Amino acid sequence: MSARIKPPMGLDNAWWWQMADAGKLGIQRCRGCQTLRHPPRPMCGECHSLEWDAVEASGRGVICSYTVLRHPQFPGYEYPLIIILVDLEEGTRVTSQLVGCAPEDVDFDLPVEMLIHEDPDGFKLPVFKLAGAA
Amino acid sequence: MPVSLKDEAAIAGIGLTEFSKKSGVSELSLAAQCIKAACDDAGVSPSEIDGLVTYTLDSTDEIEVARAVGAADLSFFSRINYGGGAAVGTIAQAAMAIATGQASTVVCYRAMNGRSGKRMGQGVSGEITSSDLIHWSWYMPYGMLIPGSWIAMIANKYMHKYGVTREDLGRVAISQRNHALRNPRAYGYGKPLTMDEYLQSKQIAEPLCLYDFCQETDGGCAILVTSTERARDLKQRPAVIRGVTQASTRGQEQMTSYYRDELLSLPEMELAANRVYAMSGLGPDDIDAACLYDAFTSEIIMQLESFGFCGVGEGKELVREGALDIDGRLPNNTHGGLISEGYIHGMNNIAEGVRLIRGESTGQPSKAVAHVLVSSGVGVPTGAMILGKAD
Ligand SMILES: [Zn+2]
Questions:
Q1: B149/A67 CB distance under 8 A
Q2: Which end of chain B is less enclosed by CB atoms within 10 A, N or C?
Q3: CATH number, domain at B93?
Q4: Quick one: how far is CA B89 from the chain centroid?
């Protein structure tokens, strides 16, 4: 069985995956005006600073939207596959996967918590579960 | 002095290849065939072509096409990015080139073995990194590989907020299938679709099912643009470009745009609407028919709101009233559209807009059609155009 598609690692995005590999959900923060932004970009659209650092998100948020993917089924993924948009409590939004949840149980506005999923090949990515779920 | 594109250029010819699931010929061959057909339709020799415009996704180089069709000197060639978002943008390029004297006979084309060759949504990964690949990488590792998965996220939220049902999406699919039943070119020709079949079809990316998706197709479509003045003397009744624009807005992404405040509307399509209405001096009440981009059924309902045919959240009401049908307020995609004629990345919707102005559609409404609205891809940097009759 082949593995999931891996992200290309460039100067603007590799750090986020490195944080995930270290067990953290990262959010880029402008060092000029402190604005949080996601997905990462090299320049702040508010103050045009090129300086940034990253904060570690709490991992808590609510489901903003979702879709359940059933077909076609690609190798490296488990179906049905629940993809969610999460409004993080820090104010940014992230696209991720909801795990440990039946498709009929996912809904808008449910609270979720981040966890790190690790593939058999060692690749790690942040995913979410319903808040309080095992 | 700024140049307005209003009425400067017109579509004088349209050309199509056969549409199929397996063309058996190269994309270059499809391009050459549809361009020759557009020239024949207009009554213009391919040797007169001095401008070519296509999509960045098109595999056929302009100079290969030019040699194939026997074009001579080219003074204008350009490409538009963002998949189906390019459709009307190619016409905007042609109209600008004509209005500013860069070229006199510009052919916009899209030729694709969209089913038998490279299909959409096969994933990206690898050693090469670009800003575009990094964009897709926020989705691919999570399994969002196909366009339907990206659109479903927006469709689901929109439907939840405004009480749009699966039956409403089904009404869009069936309306367009009914148009296709009259169109021998169409995939849906001779294949009626019932609401039961729609509702029972395979779920792909909830809430979207099989019939919410467009038809992957092999084929080519070319649009010949020239000055309105010259078009009057050519073979066909011209479809005059009353207004045309491209549009991308703050927070724009390709297909996803999940991180902006507006998840329940299409800001780039609203920009396109404002600009084509302003340029043409027309408004929604002046539009008699439409070819709204329809890679997915949900996009039609949202665009009815973007273009001001109804209020926010009311698109479903128009659909339930039958507005999109042949005798409705806004007959839409009267050839069957990308969903039921074929997916030639929106170029075939432009061709249908021209037929409606000429009065030659297989789905021609009985009412007079003075103005037709055509839009480009949804959820991507896009554009819109209003076609009208020559004075
Ligand atoms: Zn800043």
A1: yes
A2: N
A3: 3.40.47.10
A4: 10
